């Protein structure tokens, strides 16, 4: 069986200003802090002699490859992203960057922000614009009912509030 996996699609090339700042901070941290530290430790491990059985050297080289891979990805991705920092013409409808308060059929409330795929973080209630829920919300107004096909069956929500910070 082959280990080949087709490349993952990059997703929608939109990002909020906060998300771009986080990606740039990660890129800076990797390139200016982590990489020099790992390079220094690899150099020290290489100076110890036999590299074939030197776990610190092998691990350090692996870490460098991972850091370089992530730096390449972030550099290319940041070039292609479009920062959306303006409010939409109609703030009464859900668009990219909106905080949306929802209520389900049982009266349970939840609040999500629609962001780019690079910013996805469910702990902070940030959902990707490419997600089924966000796709169902885009363009809808207050009090609209949305239906999303979930693994457990259809889910229904009502839009209670829309906010743009």
UniProtKB/TrEMBL annotation:
Residues 92-164 form the Transcription elongation factor GreA/GreB C-terminal domain. It comes from the Bacteria. Transmembrane segments: none annotated. The keyword Mitochondrion does not apply. Residues 14-83 form the Transcription elongation factor GreA/GreB N-terminal domain. InterPro entries: GreA/GreB_C_sf, TF_GreA/GreB_CS, Tscrpt_elong_fac_GreA/B, Tscrpt_elong_fac_GreA/B_C, Tscrpt_elong_fac_GreA/B_fam, Tscrpt_elong_fac_GreA/B_N, Tscrpt_elong_fac_GreA/B_N_sf, Tscrpt_elong_fac_GreB. Keywords: DNA-binding, Elongation factor, Protein biosynthesis, Transcription, Transcription regulation. PROSITE patterns: GREAB_1. GO terms for biological process: DNA-templated transcription elongation; regulation of DNA-templated transcription elongation. One of its GO terms (molecular function) is translation elongation factor activity. Belongs to the GreA/GreB family. GreB subfamily. Necessary for efficient RNA polymerase transcription elongation past template-encoded arresting sites. The arresting sites in DNA have the property of trapping a certain fraction of elongating RNA polymerases that pass through, resulting in locked ternary complexes. Cleavage of the nascent transcript by cleavage factors such as GreA or GreB allows the resumption of elongation from the new 3'terminus. GreB releases sequences of up to 9 nucleotides in length. This is Transcription elongation factor GreB.
